[in-house]
């Protein structure tokens, strides 16, 4: 047995323990937020179970890349993405989201079902739903007494739902408040495609255009509710971070540096662990910003390794 292989096997239990300790720390941190009334978690949501299910997903080995997602990202970004999932009371076991690694930074991204679940949790929201408008169907809207665009009718032709992207004319979303007032958002297929063109999820959009069209219009409809909500800042922050960049133009208006950072992030996915933070790196910026809020400072201090152990690990280090 080679010295390198033997060393790798000797390090395996230690590496596994560090990964388990990481997810335990995340669960404890989120639980403390609940106990301190910083966030509200539904009674039927188990923080421990959701994070453990995510841990199993993250440690699954990709046989093509010969590594797991967890081994492909920095421990800080893994911790933050797990936290974002738990704060929103979502679960990968229910297909409410998934983890993506850009360079060596992990992010949690909500699915279509996850976005619906999050919006229903927001204060004052009773329900949310979305539908696709197919070619040949009759869809009518009108302005109500308040001068707002309102749903009038949608004559559905089930044969028109071919699942083909070219047969989609648009999509709409309705958010209903607890007082019965409904808010309608409509997007044409041209608007939807414009949003898709700014995303890195082209393969998924082409494979599941119907579900992705719903997801896009839901994200747009939810934007006003998210940014005017009186829910906790931690909850809203997690929601905003995990909203896919469907609306890059609006983000540019809110943050002039966004275009520079986003383009830089798309052009180069090679991040260096010890490289100082750069303003143009959007994901590094978000990680550093959250570190300044001291959400994981105690965790990071507990995870500092002796220098010799780091040098002998031969891996990314935990």
TrEMBL record:
Matches recorded under Pfam families: RecT
Polar residues bias (residue ranges): 1-14
InterPro entries to which the protein is assigned, alphabetical: RecT_fam
GO BP annotations listed: DNA metabolic process
GO molecular function list: DNA binding
Domain of life the protein comes from: Bacteria
Biased composition (Basic and acidic residues): 248-269, 301-311
Region entry Disordered, spans: 1-21, 245-318
Protein's recorded name: Recombinational DNA repair protein RecT (Prophage associated)
Protein source organism: Jeotgalibacillus campisalis
């Amino acid at each position: 047995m080679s010295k390198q292989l033997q060393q790798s096997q000797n390090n395996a239990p230690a590496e596994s323990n560090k990964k388990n300790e990481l997810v335990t720390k995340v669960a404890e941190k989120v639980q403390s937020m609940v106990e301190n009334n910083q966030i509200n978690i539904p009674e039927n949501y188990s923080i421990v179970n959701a994070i453990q299910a995510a841990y199993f997903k993250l440690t699954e080995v990709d046989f093509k890349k010969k590594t797991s997602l967890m081994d492909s990202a920095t421990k800080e970004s893994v911790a933050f993405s797990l936290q974002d999932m738990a704060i929103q009371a979502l679960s990968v076991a229910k297909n409410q989201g998934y983890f993506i690694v850009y360079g060596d930074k992990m992010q949690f991204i909500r699915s279509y079902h996850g976005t619906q679940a999050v919006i229903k949790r927001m204060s004052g929201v009773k329900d949310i739903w979305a539908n696709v408008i197919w070619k040949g169907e009759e869809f009518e809207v009108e302005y109500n007494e308040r001068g707002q665009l309102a749903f009038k009718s949608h004559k559905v032709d089930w044969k028109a739902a071919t699942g083909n992207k070219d047969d989609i004319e648009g999509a709409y979303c309705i958010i209903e408040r607890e007082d019965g007032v409904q808010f309608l958002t409509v997007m044409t297929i041209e608007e939807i495609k414009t949003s898709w063109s700014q995303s890195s999820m082209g393969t998924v959009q082409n494979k599941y255009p119907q579900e992705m069209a719903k997801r896009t219009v839901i994200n747009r409809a939810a934007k006003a509710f998210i940014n005017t909500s009186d829910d906790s800042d931690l909850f809203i922050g997690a929601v905003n971070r995990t909203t896919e960049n469907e609306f890059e133009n609006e983000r540019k208006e809110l943050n002039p540096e966004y275009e520079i950072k986003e383009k830089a992030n798309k052009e180069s996915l090679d991040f260096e662990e010890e490289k100082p933070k750069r303003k143009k790196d959007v994901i590094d910026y978000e990680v550093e910003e959250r570190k300044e809020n001291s959400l994981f400072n105690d965790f990071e201090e507990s995870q500092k390794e002796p220098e010799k152990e780091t040098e002998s690990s031969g891996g990314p280090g935990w």
